[in-house]
Amino acid sequence: MDKIIIQGGKPLYGTVSVSGAKNASLPLLAATLLVPGRHVLHNVPDLRDTRTMLKVLETLGARWERDGGTVHIDTRYLSRAEAPYELVKTMRASVLVLGPLISRTGYARVSLPGGCAIGARPINFHLRGFEQLGAMITLDQGYVEAAIKGRLQGNVVYFDTPSVTGTENILMASVSAEGTTVIKNAAREPEIGNLVDMLTSMGARIEGRGSDHLTVHGVQELRPAEATIIPDRIEAGTYLLAVAATGGEVTITDCRPAHLPALVEKLRSAGVHIEEQETTLTISCPAESVGPVQRLRSVDIRTMPYPGFPTDLQAQFMALMIQADGSSIIHETIFENRFMHVAELQRLGADIKIDGSSAIVRGRPPHELCGAQVMATDLRASACLVIAGLAASGTTEVSRIYHLERGYENMVAKMQALGADIRKIRE
Ligand code: EPU
User: Fold this and answer.
1) Using one digit for the tens of pLDDT, what is the confidence trace for 11-27?
2) Would you please indicate which residues are annotated as catalytic (active-site) residues?
3) Are residues 257 and 310 in the same domain?
């Protein structure tokens, strides 16, 4: 198994470019199943999760090839309508093939994803939504089967809580339903806007892009798409937080600062200087030997659906707050078990207490945080440990870094280019 070894305490300088968004690539890849044909997606990051989604498409009969960031997908012939357990258990977002498969073939069988390190993560909203559109849903030996006679029928679908992949699944199912579908309390994440744009270019008629109220007028025919994946806002945010934690000056290119409103605001409140342009962010924190010259102020965060503070940056934000001046309350409202990184941060000397869904972080001077052996438990927890290791003094060893490779393209090389002393080794 691979490990990451970090010698901490070095500020970061230079330029880093952001890859395409993992969480936009997955639904856009799934959407190619909607209509038989040759689709082209640009700016698709080469990650463990995008490879898994391509494997799922291949299992269903699609063919694909990659040319740099561009992936050509041929979905003219599907041979199967089943996403097997072996794939779904490695990536729950495989359930995104349900919507397009039901829409295209009237039948889909997808393994029910089990629990996950960050919470139970049920898919009941997806299934209820499909039922409201007229699908018959049955559970059989751990698999969800969805079947319809004829076409799906437009209806009102209401989410109790905005669900990102739930909204995407219902959107994909409803574009070719008969009549109009209204999705109420829809999630508003930018990745959904990316999917709406792709579906629109395929001929779908969708109103309300970017809002929590999406209206889909079903169409009889769709055409293959060419679409570009938006930049990964969570990757951009992770680099911002790494520089805030180590000090230095870095320009982050090929990103959309407009997609990070809450993080930029919180970092500014903490005392970080950030300049935003349309597709770049420049962050500067003058550095001394360990950590920024001036300690940042502690600030509180509360994770919320977009445009609130993203849960996918909560762990990385905590890695910054462990060395800020004062106390910070980090409230996680999306997932019930997303504090697995706390025990690992404590191994570096962090002072954190968990009280239900809140973590109370008492910042310590950076030189009091000292490298240690830690274990990554999920994707964003891994990024949190890398940031903490870069900022702490001494050596940090992060094991189980396969989690990191699910969602960050070349993170080690990108950090090295910024001057970090970080390397990957095989145990
Ligand atoms: N929920 C239900 N029932 C459902 C669906 C969701 O109770 O049927 C609950 C969840 O348990 C959670 C809340 O609703 O409490 C919101 O979950 P959501 O459905 O929005 O999460 P998701 O679609 O499964 C996506 C991202 C996650 C990200 C969350 C929240 C993808 C592929 N995944 O998951 O990304 O944390 O939205 O923003 O888009 C990551 O990239 O590390 C990651 C975990």
Assistant:
1) 999 999 999 999 999 99
2) 116
3) yes
- Based on C-alpha coordinates, what's the Rg of the chain? 22
Q: What's the domain count of the chain?
A: 2
Q: Are residues 165 and 44 in the same domain?
A: yes
Is the domain of 124 the same as that of 52?
A: yes
Mutating to test ligand 1, I would choose from 19, 22, 23, 336 the residue with most ligand atoms within 8 A of its C-beta, which is 23
Model confidence pLDDT, tens digit, residues 33-42: 999 999 999 9
Gap from CA of 143 to ligand 1 centroid (Å): 20
pTM for the full model? 0.97
293 Cα to the center of ligand 1, angstroms: 38
Q: Are residues 117 and 214 in the same domain?
A: yes
Which atom of ligand 1 approaches the CA of 306 most closely? 38
Closest listed residue to residue 45, CA positions, set 191, 194, 232, 198:
232
Give the pLDDT band (50/70/90) at residue 119: confident
Query: How many helices (H) and strands (E) would you count in the chain?
Result: 14, 24
Query: What's the 103 CA to ligand 1 centre distance in angstroms?
Result: 22
Q: Which two tokens stand for residue 305?
A: 């659906």
CATH number at residue 243: 3.65.10.10
